[in-house]
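ingest -> validate -> predict -> emit
validate: passed (alphabet ok, no gaps, 368 aa)
predict: started
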Amino acid sequence: MEFVKKHIALCVPDLRGGGAERSNVQIANGLVRRGHSIDLVVLRKDGPYFNDLAPEVRVIELGVARARYAILPLRRYLLRMCPDVAISSLLNVPLVISSRFLGGKTKIVLSERFHFSAMRNDARALGEKIAFAFARFLYPMADKITPVSQACADDLIRSGIAPPDKVRVIYNPVVSDGLDILQREAPGHSWLQDKGSPVVLAVGRLHPCKDYDSLLAAFAHVEDKSARLMILGEGDERERLESMAQKLGISDRVSMPGFVENPYSYMARCDVFVLCSKYEGLPGVLIQAMACGATPVVTDSPGGSAEVLGPDLRDYLVPVGDVEALSNAISSALKAPLSPDALRERAWVFSEDASIDAYEQLIYDLCG
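emit:
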């Protein structure tokens, strides 16, 4: 794809370890490799993924603690630096306000990374509820809205949040050649270094939306009592989940090591990978686990989980919150894993190159 290189701003709160943050690093690195000038605009320079940024990516720190305080700093940035395109992840409302109401000629793209209706229904904090209420009026002011799955796109249109002509699905950049190298590294956990027992793995922040309550309850009834459960990730739910595991009598078979910089080495050696979220956008950890050949047990949540599996790999797709079905699926998957080759082939649909191609084409369509 040949066209004049552009100045692009990627706007995200920080790089503290979520899937959206990892994707922004991959997008930034991919676009800068193709010769574009890339600014990564963050509220604060915080998070482990800054170590993965290409040195050519310029980091712009707005110096505020919360998204609602970012409107004026974003406006100053846009007016001073005048990027051709600004792409927001998790800063959608502030970016639209700073550009459309306070001046600015930059083309605005909103990356919707979650199932909007499910997130809105799950909102508890007043600030979150207000932001979702404003979205109906603000999202149509963007030049493009890029949901990360078709399921999320359909929801935005159906809910009246996004005009159909402004919506374009762009899958996250998930799988790359580097993943193959990383999965061969030795995992930093004894359960996977010396596989005496099967290991069930989950990866994601310790948050209610991941529904680890159902996973712990289901694991307590898995047939193979030698199996072990490992949950990689950090969050406010740690103490409560550890207490729940103890009450269920499975604490000696459950490990929560926290955030792990290279989860792929764990995915490549686990026996079953579980994603039991209440909702998702496009679950990168599921794609990554499939790329590592791990058999997935997945809840059929609103969003892109079933879309990732495709029509042929849904053997262990279960209803959200159904503990019995989840337990049975884990037991069955331990006994009858899916073809690693088929899983890897499907995962490559969500390759880094395909995503960067799509973003580059979008930029070209917006700017010429």
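The chain has two domains: 7-173+351-367, 177-349.
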